């Protein structure tokens, strides 16, 4: 009899828990639901909660697609006009901006699109970003770096006018797409190049808002619309990464257009684990739902690995970064990818003289995450660092680095307005400064990146 009562009570208790769970998930509202949710969070695995919060919250808040929607509804779209783009080489920021440029050109001319591939750099020489560059560039799909499903879902919601095709295989029965009209943006009649950008190598357009009209005029002269057979393919080759003056876009567009390309989920998950372990190692509190704590830790990028660009020597970069960290009274530093092992060790030892702790992601992962990290390429590892650096209290790097500009500008949009370009409390040549990020460099270095990046 006693056993029967026990079983009966256990069944009643289990049913009660189910009712409470349903109430919390679906019936509870306002403060009551928040209280119960907070209560049960304490009994879940802290790492699981942290990673979930990280994946479900962006440092810039929810995506706002109003600017994108306005852009797309304001264009005239032509069914059967198809844009393809050459595979994009370079660093992660270069690749991201190149893919976004392809999307933007398709919108400007009202075309359908096949999203470009990513051309991976040499695994033997990081400075070689276009290995075996003979003929049409071949690459890997954009989901090698980014979340393709998120891109398609977001575009479908805010720019449904843009039709995205999987590949040229969608046109297997249309042989005319095999001989496209060639498009080189810098050879489009009427375009103007910004002339006030020293060191920009003539990359940035002066009047980006006219590009769509100028391209269509050129295409229509080569192939009059009245006699044109659709589908009609236009092939952008090469795909430039820094050609559109994004700084001239309306704020609702510029602040969010770059967020169409979100880092792929598994890399974001590794970054979340890195941040979770970092807060334990530094005894600080990081809450992915609440933006950043400016006093938590500083993130530093040093670029001394082989690279197509000539960065300042290690001693100069290290001096600038250390001065920045010391001036801001930071005692914890997260060092991103980009430096040689010798320079990582040297910087770590030098920071000890100022009672500053330095860690890297390799020191902050374990188990499956460590195994996954060990299998990543140089640029994939940078993507992990991108996610971590966005959550740092402070960030510093060199103005020649597209990665540094991408992080700095994204953090500006998320956390605060830019400050003075001259900051007397910081040593070195300060190129750009905000309350949360500072980039070092001489004169106008990186100005084309600052004006062209959609972070």
From TrEMBL:
The chain crosses the membrane at residues 6-24. Keywords: Membrane, Transmembrane, Transmembrane helix. This is Alternative oxidase.
